[in-house]
Amino acid sequence: MPRPDTRVRIAFDLAAGGVGSFFTLDDPSKGELDNATFKLAGDILEDVTNDVRAVSVRRGRSRELERYQAGAATVDLDNSGRKYDPAAGTAITPYGASMRPRKAITVSTAGVPVFAGVVDDWDLDYRLNGDHVASVKASDGFVFLAQQEIQPHTATAGTTGERITDILDRSEIAWPAGKRSIDTGVATLQADDIGGTANPQAVNALQYLQKVEEAEQGALFIAADGVLTFRSRSALQILTTTKFADDGTGIPFSNIEGSYGSEELRNRVSVSRLNGGTVTAEDSASIDAYGAIDYEIRDSLLADDTQAQALADLILTRYAEPLLRIDSVEVVCNQLSDAQLAEVLALDLGDLVQVVYTPSGIGDAIDQFVRLDAIEHNVDPGQHRITFSFSQGEPPALVLDSATFGLLDVNTLGF
Questions:
Q1: Which of 184, 248, 251, 374 has its CA 20 to 30 A from that of 166?
Q2: 53/275 Cα distance (integer angstroms)
Q3: Where is average pLDDT lowest: 6-15, 29-38, 215-224, 402-411?
Q4: pLDDT on residue 191
């Protein structure tokens, strides 16, 4: 099958390059005020797909118990004609004059968003044979939050989702309402004197929002379409319909990786609360078998010790014993049907999926529910490969009247 259509668009101000029917200062016809024909230009998303040589995108986090990081993309463009060269002059390129950082960039496959962010850098690789390449390095919206600060103020008690919404609504942040999707959240937070009163200091916006995410044990990330997304921990227990399988019952994969060991082992967990006490949870049998392996959450924003204890117990339950873990699967989009491609492109961070694999077709199948931690796209002229990386997922939450997920001794009420 042919490689699915992947399109790249980058924002350029064409008027800066002297092209297009836009208002242009000092131009005898385009420079007339109150002229409805030649309007102000500004940035326009230009389709540069025909010049694309390769695309790579990565969104998510590297390991369990870590925070989600800023998504990143790299797009390599054919620059043999110096179309993407700010030194080439407007007679050669309409783009060079506006090749600046913070210009919008989008990547889509089969019409589905894969990445939305802004340009960080243009790297120009000049080659003596004339086969020049322009590499666009881009990041998603986390780059803005990482550079913004919350001014000192007192936040009222409420749920995690309410706290995130309050922060995004503040005038110094002003995150657009149409570019966010925020769950209410399960955990409740204490009132917080953000920045302190004795010596008030501004607080980094991204770090504080991730502190809220930590209290929830949810997922805070920039979605593939650029929407700032917060998923509650109960939402993360809802099983999707996607199954990766090697037996013809789900999405086929070309590679699979797993691990078994103490890499994610945690058998003594402590959670301390801001302005409160410290609670602990430990598994004595695991400590006797493997030695004490500590995990600590400091200055949690949780409202009470009961929630802190529940959080410590949850982490201990997940990580007290070593498990065979399916770490990742890779799919080749060229080998998928249209329906299968649409299904995998619809997946996003935090989704709970099923993986079924029988190594060499021998013995019992490995059958796991895993949570999607990272998504990586690699596109070249011949193939489009997607690597889905996972962390351990809880059994899907109890679903009444379900023959599979309605069993009280197997499935649990959402935490």
A1: 374
A2: 54
A3: 402-411
A4: 96
- Range list of β-strands (E), 140-245: 149-150, 153-155, 158-159, 180-182, 188-189, 192-194, 203-204, 219-222, 228-231, 239-245
Task: Give the DSSP per-residue string, 77-113.
Answer: EE-TT-TT-TTS-TTT-SSGGG--TT-EEEEEETTEE
Coil, strand, or helix at residue 17? helix
Count of alpha carbons within 13 angstroms of residue 106, beta-carbon side: 18
Main-chain phi, psi angles of 338, to 5 degrees = -60, -40
Say which residue the tokens 């409202």 belong to: 303
How far apart are alpha carbons 208 and 196 in whole angstroms? Answer: 13
Topology (CATH level 3) of domain 6-139:
Thrombin, subunit H (2.40.10)
Residue 16 has pLDDT above 80, yes or no: no
CA 378, 379, 381, 385 dihedral sign is positive
Nearest to 160 by CA among 225, 231, 95, 111: 231
Count of CB atoms within 10 A of residue 363's CB? 8
Could you tell me the pTM of the whole model? 0.88
pLDDT at residue 38 in the model: 44
What confidence score (pLDDT) does residue 394 get? 65
Residue ranges of alpha helices (H) inside 98-204 are: 142-145, 160-169
> Which spans in 251-337 are helix H?
284-290, 305-319
| Tens-digit pLDDT profile for residues 84-111 | 999 999 899 999 988 999 999 999 999 9
Give every CB contact of residue 190 below 8 A, 6+ residues apart in sequence.
157, 273, 274, 275, 276, 301, 302, 303, 304
| Angle at 311 (CA atoms; ends 306, 314), nearest 5 degrees | 125
Nearest to 227, CA basis, from 348, 343, 137: 348
| pLDDT band at residue 395 under the 50/70/90 scheme | low
CA atoms of 415 and 413, how far apart (whole Å): 6
The whole-angstrom distance between residue 180's C-alpha and the CA centroid of its chain comes to 13
Residue pair 353/242 in contact (Cβ under 8 Å)? The answer is: yes
